[in-house]
Amino acid sequence: MSTKPHAFTLVQIQYFLAVAKVESMTLAAEILSVTQPTLSSAMKQLERALGAKLFVRTEQNRLRLTGVGRALMGDAEQLTRAAELVAENVESTQRDLTGELVVGVFSPMAPFRIPRILQEFGQLHPRVTLSFVDGNQSTLQRMLLDGRCDVVIMYRLDLDRRIQTTVLDRISPYALLPANHRLAVERGEIHMRELQDEPYVMLDLPHTREYYLGLFEWAGIAPNIRYRLDSFESVRSFVGAEHGYTILHQGFGLTHTYSGGTVEARRIQGGPPRLEIVLGAMEGTLQTRRARAFSRIARSVFAANPN
Predict the structure, then answer these.
(1) Which of 173, 213, 246, 285 has a C-alpha 20 to 30 A away from that of 124?
(2) Within the chain, what is the greatest distance between any pair of CA atoms?
(3) How much is the pTM?
(4) Dihedral (C-alpha) 101, 104, 105, 106: value to the nearest 10 degrees?
């Protein structure tokens, strides 16, 4: 028995998507500017090639997808999108990069190396319209999976398996203390056990909160959580106003807060688990030249400015 697959064409796939979306051969033919017999013949050829029926006709004379048809929808959309990107990439090799690129960034990272990346990208590719959005880990994942972002820069924390990643940096957590705190005055490094009874000001964002709580488990202590805040700078300001300490990753060398307070960062002894900063994109999709150019610049900036 032959296992050689039957051939089908990209045009047939495009026709299939049109029929599936409007549930009518007649309406789809009008949208595609082809005759109905031509469209009907293409669908029959596609069904023969796949060895399965893709549509059933309802009592209301609508064409509904079969189980096989529904399974084909996602693959068909990816296939047509990949074909569009192939054409776009081939065409764009003959000219400067143009078009739109949407980049998502985890909010606490946004003030640091991201402006440098955007600046270099803008200088090299001025004809690309680059849009920037920041959000928490959950929001960025949804935007990437929904197609609202082309690439994201975030932590590798509970990522959806459909997101492929490139590691940009690995960073260690540190303790942030009021500048006049005894541990900030006396010690260059501290152990988390020394903070056990101190009030903890927590950066409380989806996925990152679980990581921080895991750090306390790693240290064998329970945090004395006094405040939960979802803003990086608010957390720093609360520490600067002597409301407690916090654990952070970004902004190690910053000593002043928005509220006018002063803070000191101290490394944590014992080799606490590090976090990976990653560049994320949808797995199995062909990236545009714009996205690949952004990826190269991001890797270069992170390599030149390690945390």
Answers:
(1) 285
(2) 85
(3) 0.67
(4) 180
Per-residue pLDDT at 94: 45
Angstrom distance (rounded) from CA 182 to CA 74? 59
Pair (154, 290) in one structural domain: yes
155-182 pLDDT tens trace: 999 898 889 899 999 999 999 999 999 9
**Single-letter code of the amino acid located at 32:** L
**Better pLDDT: 90 or 232:** 232
What gap in Å lies between CA 197 and CA 49, rounded to an integer?
A: 69
One domain, residues 216 and 293:
no
State whether 164 and 282 are in the same domain: yes
Task: Assess if residue 300 is contained within a domain.
Answer: yes
Q: Are residues 211 and 284 in the same domain?
A: no
**Residues 157 and 287 both lie in one domain:** yes
Give the domain range for residue 29. 10-92
Long-range contacts of 155-161 (CB under 8 A, 24+ apart): 155/106, 155/207, 155/208, 155/211, 155/275, 155/276, 155/277, 155/278, 156/275, 156/276, 156/277, 156/278, 157/207, 157/208, 157/210, 157/211, 157/275, 158/207, 158/210, 159/278, 159/280, 161/283
User: Is 5 part of any domain?
Assistant: no
Asked if residue 4 is part of any domain, the answer here is no
Domain end residue (candidates: 92, 107, 126): 92
For 60, the 3-state DSSP assignment is: coil
Query: What angle, 0 to 180 degrees and rounded to 10, lies between the N-to-C axes of helices 67-92 and 10-22?
Result: 130
- 80 vs 119: which has the higher pLDDT: 119
With beta carbons less than 8 A apart as the criterion, state whether 145 and 282 touch.
Answer: yes
Task: Report yes or no: 207 and 157 within 8 Å, Cβ to Cβ.
Answer: yes
Q: In the prediction, which pLDDT does 89 show?
A: 59
How many domains is the chain partitioned into structurally? 3
